[in-house]
């Protein structure tokens, strides 16, 4: 982690998933070509960090994108991988339902 600005706000210094949400409005970055900002709606932080890699990466990385996969902050993933990340982040029970009490407590502690 080269930029320590947000170090104290991270769940771990290792690369990790930290929340889920819904992408809202997308706007172009006027200062950089082919760069965009995305509004994040329904933001729900995880109870615990979910590391990108635990032996193997959770996401399926295409061979032609290995060197620059993590450059994109928003990536398409399968429903199976998404659900696995939610379970590991401890905001979804194994039956697939959201744990509303834990979401509230995590957000407003």
Question: How would you concisely characterize the structure shown here?
Answer:
The chain is 17% helix and 30% strand. The protein has 109 residues and is an alpha+beta fold.
What report would you give on this structure?
- By secondary structure, the chain is α+β, with helices and mostly antiparallel strands.
- It has one domain (7-108).
- Helix content is 17%, strand content 30%.
- The protein is built from 2 helices and 4 strands, in the order E-E-E-E-H-H.
- It has helices at 79-88, 100-108; strands at residues 16-28, 36-51, 53-54, 56-57.
- Strands 1-2 form a two-stranded antiparallel ribbon. Strands 3-4 form a two-stranded antiparallel ribbon.
- Strand 1 (16-28) and strand 2 (36-51) form a beta hairpin.
- It is globular and about 35 Å long.
- It starts with 15 loop residues before the first strand and ends with a helix.
